[in-house]
Design brief:
This protein is an alpha+beta fold. 31% of the residues lie in helices and 25% in strands.
């Protein structure tokens, strides 16, 4: 019997379109002999839709039309079953499909940051990837660095500021940046990926524009030291807290000071080719695989990536990004992507793991976690309510 696999993607995020590409790449590569695949597109209002067209990339050039030809659904629990039910249901409940396991493939806020994982965990449906806590930590660039620094992982000096703090006393914040971080500095939203909202400020006079740009995308931002003579090196990790392995390393080639959204997803635009049409996603990025780095550095990066993955409690596949000063030899952990673009499949193929096999491994890891959770008690018998009586609280003058 086939496993009923619901692939969720899209969502209210600036990485919405990237998520569509990642998810439909996976849908195309999943083994149809093993899985009954149910694509569930989530629009930018977080409404869910399914249907035959939802799994076809060519229909995403006209999303309003796609939605009109799809079925709006909501996930509900009924006994031991998780169902996708038509919404609204005017003439009684109409079950569209049952779900055995969920495969969340959304990037960014509400989808990758623990919010959607919380919904799945609340419903009790097994799901691929990080749990609520590791997803949340993986998305928050400041929290993850504080945790990892405490465990001895090399991270850059950084500070966190809120929009309220900044606009209340801009001069004070700019001085704080100079004292705690220094210039040049990298300024970015605290909880976004795909290089959205990131700028480099070379001097104090440039900081204001970069900070205000980042605040367009988040209420909190992180400001950290900019690495000089920079080379970026990335590696993927597959597994869970029990056992994890690292992929081959890559060196992405940026067209600017830092790797931009354009570098990642629109690098072929000048050639008249749309990445959405090609369904190539992160696989289109100009890169060197394997990265042209010494063997000792390669193994150091892979080791730190696995350690970081386990410290944060991750599961599934993640991409860990590093910053390397080519002059001094200093290496710094940059960030983790717990739902990496294209699931970083291009980093696994060089070490002998093809994309369909990678997807199988991810699903098996989710099923393993579900088996382990069944051995944990989430409630216990108590008679605490048997004699409970509540008196009226408050009253005149708070008495």
């Amino acid at each position: 019997m086939k496993i009923k696999l619901a692939v969720f993607f899209g969502g209210k995020s600036v990485e919405h379109e990237v998520s569509v590409i990642t998810a439909l790449q996976a849908v195309k590569s999943l083994d149809n002999e093993k899985y009954e695949i149910i694509p569930v597109y989530i629009d930018k209002n977080n409404c869910m839709y399914t249907g035959i067209l939802a799994g076809k990339i060519e229909y995403y050039t006209d999303i309003p039309n796609l939605i009109r030809q799809s079925i709006r659904v909501i996930p509900v629990r009924e006994g031991e079953k998780i169902l996708l039910v038509k919404y609204p249901s005017r003439f009684g409940k109409k079950v569209i499909s049952e779900i055995d396991i969920a495969f969340p493939l959304g990037h960014g806020t509400t989808m990758e940051d623990g919010v959607f994982q919380g919904l799945l965990q609340f419903l009790g449906v097994p799901f691929v990837g990080c749990n609520v806590l590791s997803a949340a930590c993986g998305m928050n660039k400041y929290v993850q660095k504080i945790l990892l620094k405490n465990e001895g992982i090399p991270v850059l000096n950084c500070i966190k500021i809120t929009s309220k703090d900044y606009f209340s006393d801009t001069e004070k914040i700019v001085k704080l940046i100079a004292e705690k971080v220094g210039f040049p500095t990298v300024i970015k939203p605290i909880n976004l990926g795909s290089s959205v909202g990131i700028k480099i400020a070379q001097t104090q006079s440039e900081a204001a524009d970069s900070i205000e740009h980042a605040f367009l995308f988040a209420h909190e931002i992180i400001i950290e030291t900019a690495v000089q003579n920079l080379r970026e090196v990335n590696v993927a990790v597959l597994g869970d807290c029990d056992e994890a392995v690292a992929s081959e390393c890559e060196e992405p080639l940026a067209g600017d000071e830092i790797l931009s959204y354009k570098d990642k997803y629109l690098s072929n635009s000048a050639k008249g080719k749309s990445q959405l049409d090609k369904s190539s996603g992160m696989a289109s990025l100009s890169r060197k695989i394997p990265a042209e780095i010494p063997t000792e550095l390669r193994e150091k990066i892979r080791k730190i990536a696995i350690e970081s993955f386990k410290i944060l409690g991750c599961s599934g596949v993640a991409r860990v990004d590093f910053l390397y000063n080519n002059s001094t030899g200093e290496l710094f952990y940059n960030e983790i992507n717990t739902v990496p673009g294209s699931l970083a499949y291009y980093l696994w193929e060089p070490v002998g793991i093809k994309y369909p096999a990678l997807l199988d491994k991810l699903i098996n890891l989710a099923l393993k976690r579900e088996r382990e959770n069944k051995n944990v008690n989430f409630s216990f018998e108590t008679n605490i309510l048997s004699g409970a009586r509540l008196s009226k609280l408050g009253g005149k003058n708070g008495k």
